């Protein structure tokens, strides 16, 4: 009430009206701070995406061209999300999807990268079509409330796992799959210190706690000379030191990625009958993005009592559009980023947050050596803390009823352990339908959800058969 009366008393600026800042109880400075925070937690993609895609796309000066393509695709994704859908969600080429593109499709199946880009483009068209027709919203509505909370919690676990892995706190172990890293390794102690600093700032309700935590950890790394820039846990920085410490060293010259732009081969993708590849890109991104967007919306308080988000068609269509544009620019699927939760944690509630991230991605075409000065160990605490914040909703799951609790648990645990949001959503939906179907509660589940579960099951069986 008071927000509304205040915004009536003080005439709202154009920016305020366009983004609905006062309506969301937010301010320009809070949105910009949220945007910087989200950018810092996801800027690693500028270096990691070229590394992954560079194993499959061989063009002159591939690393820098792919870095530019990544920055432009991310900027476009963030700008359309902020300006058209007006949500505080950032987009960039997705991890997992880039690995599937490079290792499975191009290197594994021997499909030319141009044709694979064509398949990404077609999956983007399908995405936009389904969003405009309202099919994605219908599926989101059919997902039971307990699974929606579990999806948010699972994404939190996924984020925390990403942070723990980036920091070197969790490492691979051939005997047990995962193990504890060396606590005396610089990235490990640095990120643990950063975690405590950020948690204390948050507990003391300091504005910008996550952002301050990232900057303080970076400063400590620089002042102590901790070996996180070379040979640290963050492979991107090891391979590409970028920042040389000098003032001029923060500037890089942008390059137009002419060997990548417009190289996609749509006709080739159709002609080669890449149905299963298109379907996989489509499937993984569909459940990845739908899970991410639902989880983020829930975290930001955008869902109404029926679990629907406002402007859902536009919201969903924007990540399809970003995927299409990204494929045109020469990168694998661009999608909504879970790291946006860090900006939401800073209070970002409107499209201005996403626009800020987009502008920073554009600037990073000039300032990418500076972005490389933020080590993975400094952003890891943000990922872990935001993961903890996203767990909050799982208390709404009815854990005493195993037909609700087990699917929710599978959703949460499968996301970090299979390193895929899509797998978590899929296992949750399949187990939910199967348990309800055979325990006399068949009618409690929407027919749409049964249809989705059947499709997911067929896809898993098909995958095994391949
Ligand atoms: N595939 C993905 N989906 C959501 N958020 C991500 N952040 C990095 N990769 C992502």
Name the beta content range. under 5%
SSE order, one letter for each helix or strand:
HHHHHEHHHHEEHHHHHHEHHHHHH
Small ligands present: adenine
Largest sheet: 2 strands, antiparallel
Instruction: Look at the structure and give the mean pLDDT.
Output: 87
Helical amount: 55-70%
End-to-end C-alpha gap: 58 Å
What would your notes on this structure say?
This protein is mostly helical and 466 residues long. The protein has helices at 2-9, 14-19, 28-42, 45-53, 62-85, 97-108, 113-132, 135-142, 145-167, 186-203, 209-224, 235-239, 266-271, 275-300, 312-329, 340-345, 351-371, 376-390, 402-417, 421-438, 447-465, and strands spanning 91-93, 170-173, 177-180, 334-336. It is 66% helix and 3% strand. A two-stranded antiparallel ribbon has the order 1-4. A two-stranded antiparallel ribbon has the order 2-3. The longest helix has 26 residues, at 275-300. Residues 1-9 and 230-241 have low confidence and may be disordered. Bound molecules: adenine. Residues 94-97, 288, 292, 335, 337-339, 421 line the site of adenine. It is found in: Cell membrane. It comes from Deinococcus carri. It is a multi-pass membrane protein. Belongs to the nucleobase:cation symporter-2 (NCS2) (TC 2.A.40) family. Azg-like subfamily.
């Amino acid at each position: 009430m008071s927000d509304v009366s205040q915004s009536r008393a003080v005439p709202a600026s154009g920016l305020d009206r366009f983004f609905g800042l006062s309506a969301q109880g937010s301010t320009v400075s809070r949105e910009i701070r949220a945007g910087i925070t989200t950018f810092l937690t996801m800027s690693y993609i500028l270096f990691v995406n070229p590394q992954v895609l560079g194993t499959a796309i061989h063009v002159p000066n591939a690393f820098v061209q792919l870095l530019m393509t990544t920055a432009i695709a991310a900027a476009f994704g963030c700008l359309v999300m902020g300006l058209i859908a007006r949500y505080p969600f950032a987009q960039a080429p997705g991890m997992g999807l880039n690995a599937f593109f490079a290792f499975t499709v191009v290197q594994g199946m021997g499909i030319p990268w141009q044709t694979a880009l064509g398949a990404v483009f077609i999956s983007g068209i399908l995405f936009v079509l389904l969003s405009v027709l309202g099919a994605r919203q219908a599926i989101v509505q059919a997902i039971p409330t307990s699974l929606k909370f579990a999806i948010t919690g699972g994404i939190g676990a996924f984020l925390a796992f990403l942070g723990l892995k980036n920091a070197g706190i969790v490492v691979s172990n051939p005997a047990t799959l995962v193990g504890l890293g060396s606590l005396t390794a610089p990235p490990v102690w640095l990120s643990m210190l950063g975690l405590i600093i950020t948690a204390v700032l948050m507990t003391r309700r300091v504005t910008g706690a996550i952002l301050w935590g990232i900057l303080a950890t970076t400063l400590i790394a620089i002042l102590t000379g901790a070996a996180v820039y070379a040979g640290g846990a963050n492979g991107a920085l090891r391979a590409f030191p970028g920042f040389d410490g000098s003032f001029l060293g923060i500037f890089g010259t942008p390059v137009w990625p002419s060997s990548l732009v417009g190289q996609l081969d749509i006709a080739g993708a159709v002609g080669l009958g890449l149905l299963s590849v298109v379907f996989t890109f489509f499937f993984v991104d569909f459940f990845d993005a739908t899970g991410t967007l639902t989880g983020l919306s829930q975290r930001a308080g955008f869902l109404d009592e029926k679990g629907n988000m406002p402007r859902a068609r536009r919201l969903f269509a924007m990540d399809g559009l970003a995927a299409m544009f990204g494929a045109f620019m020469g990168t694998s699927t661009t999608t909504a980023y879970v790291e946006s939760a860090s900006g939401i944690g800073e209070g970002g509630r409107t499209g201005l947050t996403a626009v800020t991230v987009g502008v920073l991605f554009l600037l990073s075409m000039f300032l990418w050596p500076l972005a490389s000065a933020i080590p993975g160990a400094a952003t890891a605490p943000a990922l872990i803390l935001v993961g903890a914040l996203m767990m909050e909703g799982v208390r709404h799951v009815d854990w005493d009823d195993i037909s609700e609790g087990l699917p929710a648990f599978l959703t949460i645990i499968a996301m970090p352990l299979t390193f895929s949001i899509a797998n978590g959503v899929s296992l949750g939906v399949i187990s939910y339908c199967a348990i309800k179907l055979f325990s006399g509660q068949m009618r409690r589940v929407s027919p749409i959800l049964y249809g989705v579960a059947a499709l997911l099951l067929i896809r898993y069986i098909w995958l095994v058969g391949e």
